[in-house]
User: Fold this.
Amino acid sequence: MSNWKETTEDSKRRWETNADFWDERMGEQSNRFHREIVRPETERLLSVNENDKILDIACGNGNFTKRLVELGANVTAFDYSEKMIENAKRRCAHCIDRIDFHVIDATNKDDLENLSFSAPFDKAVSNMAIMDIADITPLFNSVSKLLKPGGIFVFSTIHPCFQSPGMRRITETEDVGSGIRTRHGIQVFEYINSCCFEGIGIVNQPVPQLYYHRPLSELFAFCFDAGFIINGVSEPVFNIDNEISKYDKIPPIIIMRLIKIESYK
Ligand SMILES: C[S@@+](CC[C@H](N)C(=O)[O-])C[C@H]1O[C@@H](n2cnc3c(N)ncnc32)[C@H](O)[C@@H]1O
Assistant:
Protein backbone atom coordinates (compact mmCIF):
# COMPACT_ATOMS: atom_id res chain seq x y z
CA MET A 1 0.00 0.00 0.00
CA SER A 2 1.74 3.17 -1.10
CA ASN A 3 -0.62 6.00 -0.13
CA TRP A 4 -1.90 5.48 3.43
CA LYS A 5 -3.40 8.96 3.73
CA GLU A 6 -5.53 8.64 0.60
CA THR A 7 -6.82 5.13 1.35
CA THR A 8 -7.60 6.14 4.96
CA GLU A 9 -9.59 9.17 3.76
CA ASP A 10 -11.54 6.90 1.41
CA SER A 11 -12.21 4.28 4.10
CA LYS A 12 -13.24 6.97 6.60
CA ARG A 13 -15.75 8.47 4.12
CA ARG A 14 -17.27 4.99 3.73
CA TRP A 15 -17.55 4.43 7.51
CA GLU A 16 -19.15 7.85 7.97
CA THR A 17 -21.72 6.88 5.32
CA ASN A 18 -22.34 3.52 7.00
CA ALA A 19 -22.29 4.77 10.60
CA ASP A 20 -26.04 5.18 11.20
CA PHE A 21 -26.84 1.89 9.44
CA TRP A 22 -24.18 0.18 11.58
CA ASP A 23 -25.61 1.77 14.74
CA GLU A 24 -29.14 0.66 13.87
CA ARG A 25 -28.03 -2.93 13.08
CA MET A 26 -25.88 -3.25 16.20
CA GLY A 27 -28.60 -1.70 18.36
CA GLU A 28 -28.18 -1.73 22.14
CA GLN A 29 -26.82 -5.27 22.40
CA SER A 30 -24.78 -5.71 19.17
CA ASN A 31 -25.76 -8.25 16.54
CA ARG A 32 -25.66 -12.04 16.95
CA PHE A 33 -22.33 -12.33 15.18
CA HIS A 34 -20.81 -10.03 17.76
CA ARG A 35 -22.59 -11.60 20.73
CA GLU A 36 -21.98 -15.22 19.80
CA ILE A 37 -18.67 -15.18 17.92
CA VAL A 38 -16.71 -12.09 18.92
CA ARG A 39 -17.68 -11.28 22.47
CA PRO A 40 -17.33 -14.49 24.55
CA GLU A 41 -13.76 -15.30 23.55
CA THR A 42 -12.69 -11.64 23.60
CA GLU A 43 -13.97 -11.34 27.15
CA ARG A 44 -12.22 -14.58 28.15
CA LEU A 45 -8.88 -13.45 26.71
CA LEU A 46 -9.20 -9.90 28.07
CA SER A 47 -10.30 -11.02 31.55
CA VAL A 48 -11.48 -7.63 32.81
CA ASN A 49 -10.87 -6.80 36.48
CA GLU A 50 -12.76 -4.22 38.55
CA ASN A 51 -11.29 -0.73 37.90
CA ASP A 52 -9.08 -1.84 34.98
CA LYS A 53 -8.17 1.10 32.75
CA ILE A 54 -8.92 -0.06 29.22
CA LEU A 55 -8.40 1.47 25.78
CA ASP A 56 -11.15 0.50 23.27
CA ILE A 57 -9.73 0.97 19.76
CA ALA A 58 -12.11 1.72 16.84
CA CYS A 59 -15.08 1.40 19.18
CA GLY A 60 -17.84 1.91 16.58
CA ASN A 61 -21.16 2.68 18.26
CA GLY A 62 -19.71 1.87 21.69
CA ASN A 63 -21.49 -1.38 22.43
CA PHE A 64 -18.39 -3.14 23.69
CA THR A 65 -17.27 0.04 25.46
CA LYS A 66 -20.51 -0.14 27.42
CA ARG A 67 -19.93 -3.84 28.13
CA LEU A 68 -16.44 -3.07 29.49
CA VAL A 69 -18.00 -0.58 31.93
CA GLU A 70 -20.54 -3.23 32.98
CA LEU A 71 -17.57 -5.49 33.74
CA GLY A 72 -16.12 -2.81 36.03
CA ALA A 73 -13.62 -1.02 33.78
CA ASN A 74 -12.93 2.67 33.18
CA VAL A 75 -12.62 3.13 29.45
CA THR A 76 -10.99 5.46 26.95
CA ALA A 77 -12.53 4.72 23.55
CA PHE A 78 -11.93 6.12 20.10
CA ASP A 79 -12.95 5.85 16.48
CA TYR A 80 -12.08 8.00 13.45
CA SER A 81 -15.73 8.42 12.48
CA GLU A 82 -17.34 11.46 14.12
CA LYS A 83 -20.77 9.94 13.57
CA MET A 84 -19.78 6.65 15.24
CA ILE A 85 -18.57 8.58 18.30
CA GLU A 86 -21.74 10.69 18.33
CA ASN A 87 -23.82 7.47 18.33
CA ALA A 88 -21.53 5.87 20.91
CA LYS A 89 -21.97 8.80 23.30
CA ARG A 90 -25.75 8.50 22.94
CA ARG A 91 -25.69 4.71 23.47
CA CYS A 92 -23.46 5.09 26.53
CA ALA A 93 -25.19 8.17 28.03
CA HIS A 94 -26.07 6.30 31.25
CA CYS A 95 -22.41 5.41 32.01
CA ILE A 96 -20.60 8.31 30.33
CA ASP A 97 -18.86 9.23 33.62
CA ARG A 98 -16.75 6.05 33.23
CA ILE A 99 -15.86 6.65 29.55
CA ASP A 100 -13.65 9.13 27.76
CA PHE A 101 -14.54 9.21 24.01
CA HIS A 102 -12.26 10.64 21.33
CA VAL A 103 -12.28 11.04 17.56
CA ILE A 104 -8.86 9.66 16.61
CA ASP A 105 -7.45 8.13 13.44
CA ALA A 106 -5.54 4.95 14.32
CA THR A 107 -3.18 5.47 11.36
CA ASN A 108 -2.11 8.90 12.60
CA LYS A 109 0.82 8.91 15.05
CA ASP A 110 0.16 12.50 16.18
CA ASP A 111 -3.54 11.76 16.83
CA LEU A 112 -2.59 8.68 18.85
CA GLU A 113 -0.12 10.70 20.88
CA ASN A 114 -3.09 12.54 22.49
CA LEU A 115 -3.96 9.29 24.26
CA SER A 116 -0.77 9.52 26.33
CA PHE A 117 -2.62 11.98 28.61
CA SER A 118 -4.83 9.07 29.73
CA ALA A 119 -2.02 6.46 29.86
CA PRO A 120 -0.87 4.06 31.18
CA PHE A 121 -3.59 1.52 30.44
CA ASP A 122 -3.88 -1.95 31.96
CA LYS A 123 -5.39 -3.35 28.81
CA ALA A 124 -6.36 -2.47 25.23
CA VAL A 125 -8.94 -4.09 23.00
CA SER A 126 -9.96 -3.78 19.37
CA ASN A 127 -12.99 -5.67 18.13
CA MET A 128 -13.21 -6.42 14.42
CA ALA A 129 -11.31 -3.36 13.24
CA ILE A 130 -7.68 -4.30 12.54
CA MET A 131 -8.72 -5.43 9.04
CA ASP A 132 -10.37 -2.01 8.50
CA ILE A 133 -7.27 0.02 9.40
CA ALA A 134 -5.06 0.88 6.44
CA ASP A 135 -1.72 1.07 8.25
CA ILE A 136 -1.42 -0.64 11.64
CA THR A 137 2.23 0.19 12.43
CA PRO A 138 1.42 3.49 14.25
CA LEU A 139 -1.35 1.81 16.24
CA PHE A 140 0.68 -1.21 17.41
CA ASN A 141 3.65 0.99 18.35
CA SER A 142 1.41 3.44 20.25
CA VAL A 143 -0.52 0.73 22.08
CA SER A 144 2.78 -0.76 23.18
CA LYS A 145 3.82 2.63 24.62
CA LEU A 146 0.41 3.34 26.19
CA LEU A 147 0.19 0.02 28.07
CA LYS A 148 1.78 -0.72 31.43
CA PRO A 149 4.62 -3.27 31.29
CA GLY A 150 2.93 -6.66 31.12
CA GLY A 151 -0.23 -4.97 29.77
CA ILE A 152 -2.60 -6.93 27.56
CA PHE A 153 -3.82 -6.13 24.05
CA VAL A 154 -6.64 -8.31 22.67
CA PHE A 155 -7.83 -7.88 19.11
CA SER A 156 -10.24 -9.72 16.84
CA THR A 157 -10.15 -9.54 13.07
CA ILE A 158 -11.59 -11.43 10.11
CA HIS A 159 -9.62 -14.66 9.73
CA PRO A 160 -7.12 -13.93 6.94
CA CYS A 161 -6.89 -17.63 5.93
CA PHE A 162 -10.61 -17.95 5.28
CA GLN A 163 -11.84 -14.41 4.59
CA SER A 164 -9.25 -13.52 1.99
CA PRO A 165 -9.80 -11.35 -1.11
CA GLY A 166 -12.06 -12.99 -3.69
CA MET A 167 -12.87 -15.91 -1.35
CA ARG A 168 -15.93 -17.97 -2.35
CA ARG A 169 -18.34 -19.81 -0.09
CA ILE A 170 -19.40 -23.11 -1.61
CA THR A 171 -21.97 -25.75 -0.81
CA GLU A 172 -21.56 -29.22 -2.34
CA THR A 173 -23.93 -32.12 -2.31
CA GLU A 174 -22.67 -35.63 -2.93
CA ASP A 175 -24.34 -39.01 -3.27
CA VAL A 176 -22.39 -41.18 -0.81
CA GLY A 177 -24.49 -44.31 -1.36
CA SER A 178 -26.15 -44.27 2.02
CA GLY A 179 -27.59 -40.82 1.29
CA ILE A 180 -26.84 -37.32 0.12
CA ARG A 181 -24.06 -35.54 1.98
CA THR A 182 -24.03 -31.73 2.00
CA ARG A 183 -20.81 -29.91 2.86
CA HIS A 184 -20.06 -26.22 3.23
CA GLY A 185 -16.60 -24.98 2.40
CA ILE A 186 -14.47 -22.07 1.28
CA GLN A 187 -12.40 -21.58 -1.84
CA VAL A 188 -9.34 -19.40 -1.30
CA PHE A 189 -7.61 -17.85 -4.30
CA GLU A 190 -5.33 -15.28 -2.70
CA TYR A 191 -3.58 -15.26 0.65
CA ILE A 192 0.12 -14.48 0.83
CA ASN A 193 0.13 -10.89 -0.49
CA SER A 194 -1.29 -8.09 1.61
CA CYS A 195 -3.76 -5.92 -0.28
CA CYS A 196 -6.83 -3.72 -0.01
CA PHE A 197 -10.23 -4.90 -1.24
CA GLU A 198 -13.85 -3.78 -1.10
CA GLY A 199 -16.33 -5.86 0.87
CA ILE A 200 -19.68 -5.97 2.64
CA GLY A 201 -19.65 -6.30 6.44
CA ILE A 202 -23.45 -6.36 6.86
CA VAL A 203 -25.86 -7.14 4.02
CA ASN A 204 -27.60 -3.99 2.66
CA GLN A 205 -25.09 -1.54 4.15
CA PRO A 206 -25.17 1.74 2.16
CA VAL A 207 -21.63 1.44 0.69
CA PRO A 208 -18.96 -1.29 0.67
CA GLN A 209 -16.13 -0.83 3.15
CA LEU A 210 -12.39 -1.24 2.52
CA TYR A 211 -10.65 -4.27 3.99
CA TYR A 212 -6.88 -4.54 4.39
CA HIS A 213 -5.85 -8.16 4.02
CA ARG A 214 -2.66 -9.29 5.77
CA PRO A 215 -1.40 -12.88 5.88
CA LEU A 216 -0.83 -14.24 9.40
CA SER A 217 2.98 -14.01 9.16
CA GLU A 218 2.66 -10.29 8.45
CA LEU A 219 0.11 -9.74 11.21
CA PHE A 220 2.36 -11.56 13.71
CA ALA A 221 5.34 -9.45 12.58
CA PHE A 222 3.45 -6.23 13.47
CA CYS A 223 2.91 -7.63 16.98
CA PHE A 224 6.52 -8.76 17.51
CA ASP A 225 8.02 -5.57 16.06
CA ALA A 226 5.98 -3.46 18.50
CA GLY A 227 7.33 -5.42 21.50
CA PHE A 228 4.50 -7.86 22.12
CA ILE A 229 4.45 -11.60 22.52
CA ILE A 230 1.32 -13.56 21.62
CA ASN A 231 0.10 -15.65 24.50
CA GLY A 232 -3.47 -16.51 23.53
CA VAL A 233 -5.28 -17.26 20.28
CA SER A 234 -8.88 -18.20 19.66
CA GLU A 235 -10.67 -19.21 16.44
CA PRO A 236 -14.36 -19.29 17.39
CA VAL A 237 -16.87 -21.07 15.15
CA PHE A 238 -20.64 -21.06 14.95
CA ASN A 239 -22.48 -23.71 16.87
CA ILE A 240 -23.71 -26.39 14.45
CA ASP A 241 -27.36 -25.63 15.28
CA ASN A 242 -27.17 -21.88 14.69
CA GLU A 243 -29.43 -20.17 12.13
CA ILE A 244 -27.03 -17.60 10.74
CA SER A 245 -24.22 -19.67 9.22
CA LYS A 246 -23.71 -23.22 7.96
CA TYR A 247 -19.94 -22.89 8.25
CA ASP A 248 -19.55 -24.50 11.64
CA LYS A 249 -16.06 -25.92 10.93
CA ILE A 250 -14.39 -22.79 9.54
CA PRO A 251 -13.64 -19.88 11.90
CA PRO A 252 -14.75 -16.53 10.43
CA ILE A 253 -12.49 -14.59 12.80
CA ILE A 254 -9.31 -14.92 14.80
CA ILE A 255 -8.76 -13.34 18.23
CA MET A 256 -5.29 -12.80 19.66
CA ARG A 257 -4.03 -11.82 23.09
CA LEU A 258 -0.73 -9.94 23.13
CA ILE A 259 1.35 -9.13 26.19
CA LYS A 260 3.72 -6.19 26.26
CA ILE A 261 7.19 -7.48 27.07
CA GLU A 262 8.31 -5.93 30.38
CA SER A 263 11.79 -4.96 29.18
CA TYR A 264 10.73 -3.53 25.82
CA LYS A 265 11.52 0.19 25.39
C1 LIG B 1 -16.37 -3.37 12.00
S1 LIG B 1 -16.47 -1.87 12.89
C2 LIG B 1 -16.23 -2.46 14.57
C3 LIG B 1 -16.71 -1.48 15.59
C4 LIG B 1 -16.64 -1.97 17.04
N1 LIG B 1 -15.28 -2.22 17.47
C5 LIG B 1 -17.49 -3.19 17.23
O1 LIG B 1 -16.94 -4.29 17.38
O2 LIG B 1 -18.73 -3.06 17.23
C6 LIG B 1 -14.91 -1.15 12.50
C7 LIG B 1 -14.70 0.24 13.08
O3 LIG B 1 -13.36 0.65 12.80
C8 LIG B 1 -13.36 2.05 12.63
N2 LIG B 1 -12.10 2.40 11.95
C9 LIG B 1 -11.64 1.95 10.75
N3 LIG B 1 -10.45 2.51 10.47
C10 LIG B 1 -10.13 3.32 11.53
C11 LIG B 1 -9.03 4.17 11.81
N4 LIG B 1 -8.03 4.34 10.95
N5 LIG B 1 -9.03 4.82 12.99
C12 LIG B 1 -10.05 4.69 13.87
N6 LIG B 1 -11.13 3.93 13.64
C13 LIG B 1 -11.17 3.23 12.47
C14 LIG B 1 -14.65 2.28 11.83
O4 LIG B 1 -15.09 3.61 11.88
C15 LIG B 1 -15.60 1.31 12.52
O5 LIG B 1 -16.28 1.93 13.59
